[in-house]
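User: For my dataset I need records formatted as: sequence, then structure tokens, nothing else. Please produce one.
Assistant:
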Amino acid sequence: MRGFFKSFFAALLALVVFTVIVVLVLLGITSNLLSPSRPVVGGKAILVVDLGQTYKEQSQDNPLSDLGSEDEYDVPGLYDVVREIGYAKQDSAVKGIYLKCNNDPNGFASNEEIRLALADFKKSGKFVYAYGEAIPQKAYYVAGIADKIYCNPMGGVEWKGFATQMLYLKDALQRLEIDPQIFYAGKFKSATEPLREDRMSDANRLQLTVLLDDFYRRLLETTAQSRGLDTAVLRKCANEHLIREAPDALQYKLVDGLKYDDEVKDELREKLNVDKHSWLNFVSLGKYAKAVNYKATGKDKISLIYAEGEVVDGKGEKDEIGADTYRWLIRKARFDKDVKAIVIRVNSGGGSSMASENIWREITLAKKEKPVIVSFGDVAASGAYYLSCNADSIFALPGTITGSIGVFTIIPNLQSFFKSKLGVTFDGVKTAPEADLLTSVRPLTPVERTYIQNEVDTIYATFKARVADGRRKDVGYIDSIAQGRVWGGTFGLSLGLVDRIGTLQDAIACAARLGGTHDYRLVEYPEPRSFLDRLLGSYKRSVSVQASVKEELGEEGYRTWLTLKKVKAMVGVAESKIPFDLTIE
């Protein structure tokens, strides 16, 4: 009995101690959340813009940042980056900007937003320095605006022109005895091409060639202007592979010098007139966002709704544009009398045609009561263009990929695969001839094929009619520029698919003007998740899974995995989506 009580009280004591520890930890967390410490920028600060960081439309949460961690900060959203740079322009504590140019996973339009913000920052007379061990082309596009560009003596500058590749699965599906059974409308609609072809079609090759040439021309022109060079020389450097090593980049004036990291920092110390042994006060964008109030305040409200990711039915998950969620957000802004205008930032390759139609409907209702302005990011095509086309005004950037007005669906027939490869067969009963229309274990009948193709054609006709009405164009004209073809932002402007070339800030200024207000603040949606959701939410696990797959398979393997995952999501759903994983390098 004595042994029992001894064990009992020992366990009770351990439980009490554990409870006390948990309570203290929770109190500490609560204290930090209720009164978070604001970091200090300090004097002679240099704002660091890391181009190797992926800047999504909204900030990427780091739960540890709410606990007052000195090293962990949220990754700011793209518009946050632009606003921070704008705030730093007049912040006396910030003396200049340091661009880290070792990588650049961001799209062309995102890079354009950052580049234009840096150009405006330079008007203050403050410096912008760019440095990279080996600077890739997309990073160089942004770095070109800098006062000084340096690269490592053993590194260099990538200068080779642009290229894109697509994965084709037709032969693999034939070997597996899988018939994809594809239905589409639009001769340029190449989203299903990897499943039905073994090489790029002439139509797809044409549209991608025009797109890449457009982006490449802009790289050459902006580089020539900022570096005082000739576009013909820059084109020759790429065509003849003249920029092979760092000294070549210096010879052709793509960089101002070949320096190691410590040498660049020594030059910055001299520029700031600080001791050569002193630590430079580098301030990350995440820290700067916590330290200053860079968001405008005002009496009236403008609703800024970020729509990023695939367009899906239902509520959707993080990084998806769920029709139910976004209808509610737009409706909420429409019913709020203090909201003078609505701005929707779209960065999406499209998705469900039904979801796009439902969001289009809500935007159409909203514009009857207040201005609705749409700003396109890196991609705003197919279903994403569908939902946007009836806005009062559409802004895009030269690097935006838009258009892709077309529809497709896939209903794979796996009957031979299961029988020949796995020895599995299927049988069943039904009360009507087409009761099992969307099954994947038998081929479609000729009648069913006609029915499905008619449905795709009907959705395509509705899509074109929506665009024609919203863009105030003839349906015949829209058909001539549709056909699933993708366009760059500059071509989109000339074709009437967009109204103006401009940034998100330009779109907001337009919304304020149309809304009749100069004294406004932005109310941004979707709203940030709670601390517990950020710390324990399932979306963190999803991100971890993707990161693990990417680490195991590598970049190329990861893209293949994404392609197969997208194929699965397409089955049996009418989709308005751009081509698979259009990666330009």
